[in-house]
Amino acid sequence: ADAPVQFRGLLGVVAFALAVASNVAASGTGVVFCSLEMSRTELMDRALSMRSGVPMRTIRGGKMAPELAGRVCEAAQRFERDPFYLVASTDITVSKLSALTRRAIRK
């Protein structure tokens, strides 16, 4: 009975952290966002939903009105320009994360 409450709390924390990271990257400051629990696709869907205002279930469903698709594409293009790097791995080590961060800084 406790697991769903804890899970929802965790998703809220990830959503908040992802929103902060996205806004920092949009301002031009580089961000490496690491998640040990969510896949890169899940993180990107969530970030695109936040930036575009299109619900995640609509993005994942794949069928959307052209206006909504345009908003998602625009959000994706902004992410391409921003210094925003997603790392999603359940087995990442500190040394791998350090190497990824150094590589991101060089870009």
Notes on the protein architecture:
This protein has 107 residues and is mainly alpha-helical. Helices cover 68% and strands 9% of the residues. The chain has five helices and two strands; from the N terminus they run αβαααβα. A two-stranded parallel ribbon has the order 1-2. The longest helix has 25 residues, at 2-26. It is globular and about 45 Å long. The termini are far apart.
Quaternary structure state of the chains depicted: single chain
What proportion of the residues form beta strands (DSSP E)? 5-15%
Q: Determine the structural class based on helices, strands and strand pairing.
A: mainly alpha
Q: Outline, from the CA principal axes?
A: globular
Main beta-sheet strand count, sense and barrel state: 2 strands, parallel
Count of separate DSSP helical elements: 5
Tell me the number of strands: 2
Rg, nearest Å: 15 Å
Helix percentage range: 55-70%
Distance between the termini: 46 Å
SSE arrangement:
Elements: H1 2-26, E1 31-35, H2 40-52, H3 56-61, H4 66-81, E2 84-88, H5 94-106
Parallel strand pairs: 1-2
Helix pairs in contact: 1-2, 2-4
Task: Give keywords.
mainly alpha, 5 helices, two-stranded parallel sheet, 107 residues, 68% helix, globular, 9% strand, disordered N terminus
Short structural summary:
By secondary structure, the protein is mainly α.
